[in-house]
User: What shape does this take?
Amino acid sequence: MMNKSDFDLTHQNRHTASKIVASLERIAQAFRVLLWQESKAHSLSPIQVQVLLFLRYHSDEKRKVSYLAGEFNMTKATISDTVKTLEQKHLIAKAYEPDDTRSYIINLTQKGREIAHQTSLFTKEIRTPIDKLHPDEQENLLLSLLQVIRHLNKAGVITIQRMCTTCSHYQPSADGKTHFCKLLNQHLHVTELRVDCPEHEFELT
Assistant: This one.
């Protein structure tokens, strides 16, 4: 059991795992800074930008308050307030269900789609050094990050995940070196593994 802080420099400098944790924290900080800068440029909050981006690239059944609350690990009330603000800014519009006037799908307006596209590029400075990695290094990094994310999901730290490795269609080999999708009925190369798959179905536990 870990009893030393990864931020204790004496401990950190002696352990590679602690250096990796500290590096991930620096990258997380970079995401926060870049997202905040993008938010200010459009007079939005970071969560408002994140919601716009999610709405831009996900299907109808996921563009609902209850799903968004799980996606961002927030209460429905907080997400509802965010949606209300985005509606006041004319960035989204509600499409109510015909058989349930309390339930609605959240759609982007034209203005909302334009801002979502503009803000979606905030990660370019993080993407730049990754593009420079050798393809083998990219594949190893992807597999490692997928393992970290899956553990965090199982530990309850992060909620909804739509990765191949958390999908009922996913079948790894015994040694974990090959990957098979039962939905597509084909083997997947590492570069074909998805972090966010629209056909994802949660694995049975």
